[in-house]
Automatic annotation (TrEMBL):
FAD binds at Y26, F74, D178, G179, D180. GO terms for biological process: response to light stimulus. The lineage of its organism: Bacteria, Pseudomonadati, Pseudomonadota, Alphaproteobacteria, Rhodobacterales. Residues 74-196 form the Cryptochrome/DNA photolyase FAD-binding domain. GO terms for molecular function: deoxyribodipyrimidine photo-lyase activity; DNA binding; FAD binding. SUPFAM superfamilies: Cryptochrome/photolyase FAD-binding domain. Keywords: FAD, Flavoprotein. The keyword Flavoprotein applies. This is Deoxyribodipyrimidine photolyase. Binds 1 FAD per subunit. InterPro entries: Crypto/Photolyase_FAD-like_sf (IPR036134), Cryptochr/Photolyase_FAD-bd (IPR005101), Cryptochrome/DNA_photolyase_1 (IPR002081). Residues 226-248 are annotated as: Disordered. Coiled coil: none annotated.
Length: 385
């Protein structure tokens, strides 16, 4: 397993070590896929960012401080994460549509033997396409693929292997150490041509050979794209869910979830108890353990209740404080709890400021970059001072 930064301390150390390369070097080299052990031109921060062991804002501040807008390429990649989160949050129908369609294809897998065979060949890295099988093996071994490799992988899955994108998205959501409902689902949709009308991503054999330093020479790739018939393209955005805000004076239970694992860095109401929502993967478990350790240090008098259950809820303070849960499994798990307890959520300023700008295309957000970064300036100045 790649040593992902899955604690806050290792994420901050990784950021520090990567800073010198986040400027011109990143812009020049980021798309080269050197394979297992060779991903030195990218930050590798995604598993930590996904769980907010470290935040987009912290990464952006540090990179701006070091390079200013010479790091525009890196800064805009971080902003892609923000964009996907905000875009999906405004379109719950896309997440629900993906889940329904996935259930349909999972059912089909149990009935359609040809589909099941082709799917098994892909998942077991037996397609005979060297690049695809190589990336599948790397994914299985490490939980990571380089961004450029992810684009080729998804494209080959959809257009060459003719497999439903939803099954591919489900595979990577579960296997990526950074698996994220928004970045993952919407990137797959983007490759499949479902995000921007008329735009899809077709993998090219010569380019793959080039960008992997000749490691792969794939044969038989599709040369034209047959777009999935999805039924809907892009529903209109709706106002994002408005969370219940914590009463700042009320004694509270701090609920740790994989959506935000550095909440102790915020001003919170008096925390008298700590619980957590167990994660789904080993990476989640490591990150949650780290967050729990930090929360105990930050709130030494709080009672540690362990995993949140009906029984633990009985002894807990009435107000629960947790990080905002965007669409996805955590939000689904919190939903029934809302009827039984006062679940309040901390929405970070970064999300509150950016998500309203994520309703159209990425460039509508990107053009606001200077204004967004200007809002961070007072702290940058304080840092220098
Ligand atoms: C089919 C497909 C599926 C993907 N699934 C996920 C996923 O489940 N979770 C996830 O975090 N990213 C996903 N991505 C986006 C991207 O590939 C990863 O964020 C990136 O490869 C992580 O490596 P890094 O931290 O070294 O990135 P760096 O290049 O160092 O970038 C810095 C940070 O910016 C963000 N970022 C960079 N590129 C993108 C991008 N294209 N979209 C969104 N955010 C980006 C990530 O948080 C990343 O950590 C997917 C992309 C594709 C094409």
């Amino acid at each position: 397993m790649t040593p992902f930064p899955l604690t806050r301390a290792t994420a901050l150390a990784r950021l520090e070590a990567f800073l010198p390369d986040a400027g011109a070097a990143y812009a020049r080299l980021r798309n080269h896929d050197r394979g297992l052990g060779g991903h030195v031109h990218v930050s590798g921060l995604s598993a930590a960012l996904r769980r907010r062991l470290i935040s987009e804002e912290e990464v952006t501040r540090a990179v701006l401080d070091r390079h200013g807008m010479k790091a525009e390429k890196f800064l805009s990649e971080v902003l892609w994460r923000t964009y996907w989160k905000g875009w999906l949050e405004a379109r719950p129908a896309v997440w629900a549509g993906y889940r329904a369609s996935l259930a349909h294809w999972q059912e089909r897998l149990t009935q359609d033997r040809t589909l099941a065979r082709r799917h098994a060949e892909a998942v077991e890295a037996r397609t005979g396409i060297d690049a695809f099988d190589g990336w599948m093996t790397e994914l299985e071994e490490t939980g990571y693929l380089h961004n450029w490799a992810r684009m080729q992988f998804a494209s080959i899955w959809i257009f060459t292997l003719g497999l439903p994108w939803e099954l591919g998205a489900d595979l990577t959501l579960g296997r990526f150490a950074d698996g994220d409902p928004a970045s993952n689902t919407l990137s797959w949709r983007w490759v499949a041509g479902l995000h921007t009308p008329g735009k899809f991503y077709l993998a090219d054999a010569v380019r793959i050979q080039d960008m992997t330093g000749g490691r792969f020479r794939p044969k038989g790739l599709a040369t034209k794209a047959t777009l999935p018939r999805d039924g809907f393209m892009t529903p209109d955005p709706q106002a994002p869910r408005s969370p219940l805000r914590p009463d700042p004076k009320a004694p509270s239970l701090l609920l740790l979830t994989v959506e935000d694992l550095s909440l102790e860095t915020f001003p919170l109401p008096p925390i008298t108890a700590i619980a957590h929502l167990p994660g789904e993967t080993e990476a989640d478990r490591i990150a949650l353990d780290d967050a729990l350790t930090r929360a105990r240090q930050a709130f030494p008098l709080a009672q540690v209740l362990g995993p949140l259950t009906r029984a633990t809820l009985k002894d807990a303070p009435a107000q629960i404080v947790t990080g905002f849960a965007p669409l996805g499994p955590t939000a689904d798990r919190l939903e029934p709890l809302r009827a039984e307890a006062q679940v309040t959520e901390v929405l970070r300023d970064w999300d509150a400021r950016t998500w309203p700008l994520c309703r159209k295309g990425f460039f509508a957000l990107k053009e606001k970059m200077p204004a967004l970064f200007k809002a961070l300036e007072p702290d940058l100045l304080a840092h220098h001072g």
